[in-house]
Amino acid sequence: MKLGLRTRIGSYLALILVSLFSVFPLYWMIASSVRPRTMLLETPPPYFTAAFDISAYINVWQNTGFGLMMVNSFLIAAITTILTIMLSAMAGHSLARLKFRGKSLVSRGVLITYIFPQILLVVPLFVAMVNLRLVDSYVGLILTYMTFSFPFGMWMLTAYFQTIPVDLEEAALIDGASKLTIFLKIVLPLSKPGLAAVGIFTFIHAWNEFLYALVLLSSDEKLTLPIGLYRLLDSETVDWGEVLAATSMMVAPVLVVFLFYERHLVGGLTAGATKG
Amino acid sequence: MTGHHPDNATTYRVGPSVPVGRGEKLRFFFDRHLGVIFLLPGILLLVVILTYPVISNIYISFTNKHLVYQGVAFIGLENYVYTFTDKKFYSAFYNTLVWTAASISIQFLLGFAVALLLNLPLPGRTLFRLAMIVPYAFPPVTVALIWKWMLHSLFGVLNFMLISLGIIDTPISWLSQSTTAMSAVIMINVWFGFPLFALAILAGLQAIPEDHFEVARLEGASYLQTIRYVIFPAIMRIVGIIIVLRTIWVFNTFDLLFVTTGGGPVRATETLPLYAYHIGWHQGFIGQTASIAIALLGVLSVFIWIYFRLFKIEDEQ
After folding, report:
1. Disulfide engineering: B131 pairs with which of A19, A46, A180, B3, CB 3.0-4.6 Å?
2. H or E element: which one contains B52?
3. Residue A88: which of B38, B306, B162 has the closest Cα?
């Protein structure tokens, strides 16, 4: 397809305009976070400035317990991720390869939970967690996050496992290998990209999650990043330098992963939607 | 990766070996039922952490359970009567519809346009594609915070931009006046959500065989006709599925609205999830909230039904 000069220029202009719309907030967040405090509330704000000051970052680390919250968030997301990969790989293998009665019922049931609106569950889940004595505990939060990520992971990995040629596994079966051995020694090593995808999405979901962390956690030392960031707004005088420094540090890891992982992003985000 | 389904064609065609000794029996049992054993932990998790609360929610909605006060009594349909006669419920319902319909349609239109542009053979388009992903990498809380800063009435960069362009004369407090708050949060949501549409539609476009475009060109089709007769049919299903999924998610958005406006000013941006949260957590009426959740589920089940319909079409192909 050849493009005329006018189409070319028009397309570039449109792309530049939309790109500015999508990237400017990122620039503005970082630029504001390293702007000296005295210049932050200047009007009009300078688009560019050579002045550079990381004291907001230092303040956030020292005064707001940001480091602890980052560790909390990381631990919760990491444990959720490991457990989700294990459970969804097992269930995915089961649905992709093994025969048993009621299989389609299970896969459809799990699909419902995948698109089931989580907001509807806040109240009953909180009540259930009270009964299970799991309020203000990471166990409760991690189990909750897994109910979001397991259905997603199972769907994605079922589809992934089905793309692996079955002959290899059959050959091993004829050689007398047990199904468990086949799963561990053949299926899993061949599925690293699929497992990585599930891992990334599970981790980011847990890293970002707000509502359940807000409702289920109450002690200050257990707070996760999203809640901590929200609390920075709560004070009488909001220190925007600190807020934006904290925001930048929370966005950074996710942004890096997304940009590296860009090629696989769509398949992951719509998994279960595009794959039966 | 599409087109495969758990059917007999991909399951093992050979059975496990026959047990020989007694010690083998346990192993044989394990091997034989591995399908069920592998499913159990995940299913158990869903049943305990999801199904149980969903069912108990139905019961709670008929009681006067409170967050703080002890004692629960069965009160029949009282919660439902209250919910469906509450003016705030209807205003929240209306807000939810505006918020969802406007967000999704603008996200879709912008995403579709961007996907068409990114599909053109332009040098440097990879860079643009990376730029378009940026908003989607922001955790919702950070989306709320950065936009709160940019829309700040006194120090916000947006006001400054609009004033220097001559569009407005005086700074506007976008998020704290009821005439602009809803438009502002929808704009924020468009920023956050259009990349998913753009990337998904782009993936759909790239899957269209080149000769389809070739045929359209040879037949003298205009660009608009190409969109209508080549592109639309090819991407309709993926667009449909994403619209339904996004509708469910946007309908249920909590964090973004909670942090930017908290539903205010004066309920101007209070959608049903925030309304439910307010009644359950600030006022403590858990039974009441449970009834709202059931009402929400009623609305959303329409979308869930559409979603399954779209799936069915895909199943049959």
Report:
1. A19
2. helix B52-60
3. B38
Q: Which residue has the tokens 């540090």?
A: A249
- pLDDT tens figures, B125-140: 889 999 998 998 899 9
Q: For residue A116, list chain B residues with Cβ-Cβ distance below 8 A.
A: 50, 304
Neighbours of B47 (CB within 10 A): 13
Please answer whether residues A245 and A30 qualify as being in contact, where contact means their C-beta atoms are separated by less than 8 angstroms: no
Convert the pLDDT of each residue in A102-139 to its tens digit. 777 887 777 777 767 677 788 888 888 888 888 899 99
Closest CA to B232 of B116, B80, B94, B83: B116
pLDDT digits (tens, 9 = 90+) for B165-197: 888 888 888 888 888 999 999 999 999 999 989
B267 interface with A at CB cutoff 8 Å = no
- Counting as low any pLDDT under 50, the low residues of chain B are 1-9, 316-317
User: Tell me, what's the ipTM?
Assistant: 0.87
Contacts of B30 in chain A (CB under 8 A): 178, 180
Distance CA B239, CA B235 (A): 6
CB contacts under 8 A, B 134-153 vs A, are: 134-142, 145-150, 152
Q: How far apart are CA B111 and CA B109, in angstroms?
A: 5
Interface test with B, best of A37, A119, A162 (most B CBs within 10 A): A119
Under an 8 A CB cutoff, do B114 and A18 touch?
yes
Residue A193 pLDDT greater than 50, yes or no? yes
- Set of chain B residues whose Cβ sits within 8 Å of the Cβ of A99: 8, 11-12, 35
